[in-house]
Design goal:
- The protein is of the alpha+beta class.
- The chain is 30% helix and 22% strand.
- The chain has 4 helices and 8 strands, in the order H-E-E-E-E-H-E-H-E-E-E-H.
- The protein has an 8-stranded mixed beta sheet with strand order 1-8-7-4-5-6-2-3, with helices on one face.
Length: 196
C-alpha cells in the first residue's frame, strides 16, 4: 500500500500530464527572459488592428505585417531592460525574413519620435522596424482594461507572439537574449505551429 505522500505525488503527476498547457510532444520549447518565462494564452484572441505611426510619421496597421508570424515588442527609451534587449532584437530583425517571422518594436515613449530617434541613432539600431504608440492605442496599461484590449503591458519590455492568422499566442516580459539557441528553437517551433 502506497503512503499518503506517494499518492499525492502520483496525483500531482497525473494532473500535470492532463492539465491544459502542460508539456506534450508538440509543446513549445522553453523561453526565458532575465525575469520571467513565456506564457501561453488561452483562449486565443485576435490582435488589435489599431493605427500606429512608423518612424517617418506614416500611419501603419498591425495587419500590414501579418504575412508571417509577428514578434511584437513593446519598449521605451527610459526602460533600462528594454535598452539592454534592443541590440539583440535588432539582430533578430536582421535575420527575420530567413526565419520566416516579422519583428516589430513599438515604442510607448510619450514624446514619440523625439526620444526614439536619438536612441536608435546612438545605438546603431538599423534593422528593427520601430513603430510609435505614445497614446497606448494598441495596448492597455491600466488594471481595468476598459477597452478590453487583447494586449496588456504588464511590464517593460514585453513581447507578444502573434500568428499569421492574427491570433495572440502568448507573451514574455523582461529582456530576452534573442540570439540564444533556446530563443531560436522557440521561434522556429512557434512558426511551425502557427501555419495551421
Amino acid at each position: 500500500m502506497r503512503s499518503l505522500i506517494e499518492r499525492r505525488v502520483a496525483v500531482c503527476i497525473a494532473l500535470f500530464l492532463v492539465w491544459p498547457g502542460s508539456a506534450t510532444a508538440d509543446s513549445l520549447p522553453r523561453l526565458f527572459s532575465e525575469t520571467s518565462q513565456y506564457i501561453s494564452l488561452r483562449p486565443l484572441t485576435t490582435a488589435p488592428n489599431m493605427q500606429l505611426l512608423d518612424t517617418s510619421g506614416s500611419p501603419v496597421r498591425l495587419s500590414d505585417f501579418m504575412e508571417r508570424p509577428v514578434v511584437l515588442n513593446f519598449w521605451a527609451t527610459w526602460c533600462e531592460p528594454c535598452l539592454r534587449e534592443m541590440p539583440s532584437l535588432d539582430r533578430l530583425a536582421y535575420q527575420a525574413e530567413s526565419l520566416g517571422i516579422v519583428v516589430l518594436a513599438v515604442s510607448i515613449d510619450e514624446d514619440g519620435m523625439t526620444s526614439v530617434a536619438t536612441f536608435l541613432r546612438g545605438n546603431a539600431i538599423t534593422d528593427l522596424k520601430v513603430l510609435l504608440d505614445p497614446n497606448l492605442d494598441i495596448a492597455f496599461i491600466e488594471r481595468e482594461n476598459a477597452r478590453r484590449d487583447a494586449l496588456g503591458i504588464y511590464g517593460l519590455p514585453i513581447t507578444y507572439f502573434i500568428d499569421s492568422a492574427g491570433q495572440v499566442r502568448g507573451y514574455i516580459t523582461g529582456a530576452v537574449d534573442w540570439s540564444d539557441s533556446e530563443a531560436r528553437r522557440f521561434l522556429a517551433h512557434l512558426k511551425g505551429i502557427t501555419k495551421s
